[in-house]
Design goal:
Elements: H1 2-17, E1 40-43, H2 53-57, E2 63-69, E3 75-83, H3 92-96, E4 102-105, E5 119-120, H4 122-136, H5 140-143, H6 150-159
């Protein structure tokens, strides 16, 4: 009874003994990151209307949106901040945003030595998103399109039939 289990364990050890190790030396080498991985949050100021649905959908409460009304009826984003110290990268804010102003993606190498540097305001978030787009050579015209909610577009298409 015990001899068969020990033999299976030793066979598994011998099988892995001659394999190439899968350890990645992180700063020098990086693994390919899947496209749908929840690595970071990208926020695009051009698409954001300040509706704060992302802040309402966040279970951790790490998104702060403060707006002020403009004379033309739109909202001016006075403050937009994400506290990545609290964020669990669930992606619920990206799912809730009807304008795709906040998206899951971005680089994974944003480790910091000072814990307070993980609190980013709208200027740092914009620089972070632009840097990611520049590094990945993503098309800027996709980000700078007009802020039209996806739900409204599908309704309008349905009414035109």
């Amino acid at each position: 009874m015990y001899g068969k289990g020990i033999a299976k364990g030793l066979a598994m050890t011998a099988k892995h003994l001659f394999r190439k190790p899968v350890t990645v030396q992180f700063p020098e080498e990086t693994r390919p990151i899947p496209a749908r991985a929840r690595t970071n949050l990208l926020w695009f100021d051009e698409r954001c209307t300040g509706c704060s649905t992302c802040a309402q959908a966040c279970p951790d409460g790490c998104i702060l949106v403060q707006t002020a009304p403009n004379p033309d009826g739109t909202l001016e984003k006075v403050r937009y901040e994400i506290d990545f110290r609290l964020c669990m990268y669930c992606g619920l804010c990206a799912e809730a945003c009807p304008y795709e102003a906040i998206q899951v993606g971005g680089r994974l190498d944003d480790a910091v030595y000072v814990f307070d540097n993980m609190y980013r305001d709208k200027h740092a978030l914009t620089v972070f998103a632009r840097d990611y787009l520049r590094r990945t050579r993503a098309a800027l015209h996709q980000v700078e399109t007009a802020a039209v909610p996806l739900v409204q577009t599908s309704i309008e298409v349905g009414q035109s039939k």
